[in-house]
Design brief:
GO terms for molecular function: ligase activity. By secondary structure, the protein is of the alpha/beta class. It has helices at about 20-30, 60-70, 80-90, 105-120, 160-170, 190-200, 220-230, 265-270, 280-295; strands at about 10-15, 35-40, 45-50, 55-60, 70-75, 95-100, 125, 130-135, 140, 150-160, 175-180, 205-215, 235-240, 275-280. The strands form 2 sheets. It has a 7-stranded mixed sheet. It is globular and about 55 Å long.
Length: about 300
């Protein structure tokens, strides 16, 4: 079992002929992902061979969906073209759009997020500025390394790409149902709460690990959601305890104002909701392992 992505998912790559699209499509296919085509309007009608698989290049997401039955798009499009690419995916009503691109202007992200809402949220957006989503041994949509863990019964949702990878490696002895890197930009599609809701409903996810970071109030809102709606054990980690106040750190969304958005405030909110919070990624993994073994 998994959430949002599984072995039946049919994946297209917007930007498949670019260097990043080609490189990561090769890795996704090696991980077992069923990539069925790509999109590049300038090269429509051509084919590309990736990992010994001949794939059609289509002029639009809608055309690709009609010809291949695709239900997932992974978007490797430069920032200045990314808004149009995401809107195209939304207008085609593809089920899942994974936006890997970093550096998309906040205004553009706000625009396509609002557009998805206006269209009835028929397209789930993951990202932007994220590593994507992986259901180990089933499918991998994005840039998460597929060889650092295997299938298991932990669900992971993380703002940080690097910490996604570390947590997957730390808990490789148990494995994961699905790992999602939601991205750390100020405006993202899928949130901690969306993932928590899905993991709570997934009968094959036993423990949930949630990684946040300084900035905004997403973790505080997630803590409220856990307290009201989640019965499964949840373990948390918040990156940025040593970050100086008022300074943007790393991700565009990681800025602290007063006490709002600090790592300490997030930790306290999570612990008040019954979430065990580790001081380091390794300690967090140990807490998750203890809870899993106690089930």
């Amino acid at each position: 079992m998994s959430i949002f992505l599984d072995s039946s998912s049919k994946v297209i790559v917007q930007g498949i002929t670019g260097s990043e699209g080609t490189k990561h499509a090769t890795k996704m296919i090696a991980a077992g992902t069923n990539i069925v085509g790509g999109v590049n309007a300038r090269k429509a009608g051509q084919t590309v061979t990736i990992a010994d698989k001949e794939l059609g290049v289509f002029g639009s997401v809608g055309e690709a969906m009609k010809e291949t039955g695709a239900d997932v798009s992974v978007i490797f499009v430069p920032p200045k073209f990314a808004k149009d690419a995401v809107i195209e995916a939304i207008d085609a009503e593809i089920g899942l759009a994974v936006v890997i691109t970093e550096g998309i202007p906040v205004h553009d992200a706000a625009y396509f997020w609002a557009h998805a809402n206006a269209k009835g949220n028929k397209t789930r957006i993951i990202g932007p500025n994220c590593p994507g989503i992986i259901s180990p041994s089933q499918s991998n949509a994005g840039i998460i390394p597929a060889d650092i863990t295997g299938p298991g019964r932990i669900g992971l949702v993380s703002k940080s790409g690097t910490l996604t990878y570390q947590m997957m490696y730390e808990l490789r002895d148990i494995g994961f149902s699905t790992s999602i890197g939601i991205g750390g930009d100020p405006i993202i599609g899928t949130t901690h709460i969306d993932a928590l809701e899905a993991f709570q409903a997934d009968p094959e996810t036993d423990v949930i690990v949630m990684i946040g970071e300084i900035g905004g109030d997403a973790e505080e809102r997630a803590a409220e959601y856990v307290k009201a709606n989640v019965t499964k054990p949840v373990v948390g980690y918040v990156a940025g305890f040593t970050a100086p106040e008022g300074k943007t750190m790393g991700h565009a969304g990681a800025i602290v104002s007063g006490s709002a958005g600090t790592a300490q405030a997030k930790k306290e909110a999570l612990e008040a909701a019954g979430v065990k919070v580790g001081k380091t990624p390794t300690e967090t993994a140990d807490l998750a392992r203890e809870l899993y073994k106690a089930l």
